[in-house]
Design brief:
By secondary structure, this protein is mainly β. It has a domain of 182 residues. The chain is 12% helix and 33% strand. Strands 1-2-3-4-9-8-7-6 form an eight-stranded antiparallel barrel. A three-stranded antiparallel β-sheet has the order 10-11-12, with no helix packed on it.
């Protein structure tokens, strides 16, 4: 058991963080017995707001960090980054991880309950997990029905595996555009804490991190060279997620492309040649013109460029 939690324990200082160490003997399920296995989803408002999805299996909580909340829409595939195993008693952990520690930020238990493998026994579920495709049924306070975790071939930072969390098509499935379970049912199932959301389910504005440098927005303004702050540093995590689905330049207005473009010419002064006898010198001027035009629908778009250079007489006298 200790070997499964080595990485978890190496990343934390348990004399300074309220997280459970997992040093106590785990009360894992005995293999082959059909006892209910626990699951938990924790809302973790760390450097980036995300959701920790954990399934009890083989004596620990197998864990995935889900950057965006799980969706009840079967057509939506949520990225789930596989992280280190957690001890079973982490499933009831709520609190604030101090600044300067791994995963610093607030943690609430958004949902918890039991899960069961769809393939049969716990051994079958463990084999499916090791092969990278696990189908299961959740029976929680908020989430229910069939779900699936599938390991993808994508690679993230370091050696972390990239999985996909997908809702199966059943009576519990809902289109994402019609129903957002995290907005409709915010807050902890263990306490009165609302976590990163208000009672109406809206995301709170993030407060500045203690470790962040003072005057960071002003620095972003100077780097841009204008009064508008940087589009990334000035946005919350939820705003960035919205922007990723509908990218746009702030203040820009959508318009049709013109049928053609006027030629644009750039006149540049070329380096002068070294002076020869007397006061004679030579200068050259290059005129570069490029013209891009687009023909009507059905014809190919083409670009043409022409460079015309004119050079004065070689021994002209400068007056």
């Amino acid at each position: 058991m200790a070997g499964k939690l080595d990485l978890y324990q190496q990343k934390r200082r348990f004399d300074q963080t309220p997280e459970p160490s997992g040093a106590d003997k785990q009360t894992g399920r005995t293999r082959g017995k059909r006892k209910a296995l626990s699951f938990v989803i924790q809302e973790h408002n760390a450097r980036c707001l995300h959701y920790d999805f954990r399934l009890e299996l083989d004596g620990t909580l197998k864990s995935w960090a889900v950057p965006k909340e799980p969706s009840l829409d079967p057509t939506v595939k949520r990225l789930a980054v596989h992280v280190e195993d957690h001890p079973l008693d982490y499933g009831s952990f709520e609190g604030a991880i101090p600044e300067g520690h791994y995963g610093a930020g607030s943690v609430i238990v958004w949902d918890r309950g039991t899960w069961a493998p769809q393939t049969g026994s716990v051994e079958d579920a463990l084999r499916d997990y090791e092969q990278g495709k696990l189908k299961f049924t959740l029976d929680g306070d908020k989430l229910h029905g069939g779900w699936m975790l599938v390991k993808s071939r994508m690679r993230g930072n370091g050696d972390k595996e990239q999985w996909l969390l997908i809702k199966e098509r059943d009576d519990e499935a809902r289109p994402e555009a019609e129903y957002d379970v995290f907005a409709k049912m915010p807050g902890s199932v263990m306490s009165e804490s609302m976590g990163a959301r208000t009672k109406r389910g809206e995301l709170r504005e993030r407060t500045a991190r203690k470790s962040s440098k003072a005057g960071k927005p002003d620095a972003a303004k100077k780097a841009n060279g204008h009064d508008r702050p940087d589009i990334v540093t000035s946005r919350s995590a939820e705003s960035l997620r919205t922007l990723s689905h509908d990218p746009a330049i702030e203040g820009a207005k959508k318009a049709k492309l013109p049928a053609s473009f006027k030629p644009q010419c750039v006149r540049s002064q070329m380096p002068r040649r070294p002076a020869t006898s007397g006061a004679t010198r030579s200068s050259s001027t290059a005129i570069a013109c490029s013209r891009v035009s687009r023909r009507s629908k059905g014809s190919a778009t083409f670009a043409s460029s022409r460079i015309m250079a004119t050079t004065g007489p070689p021994n002209s006298r400068v007056r």
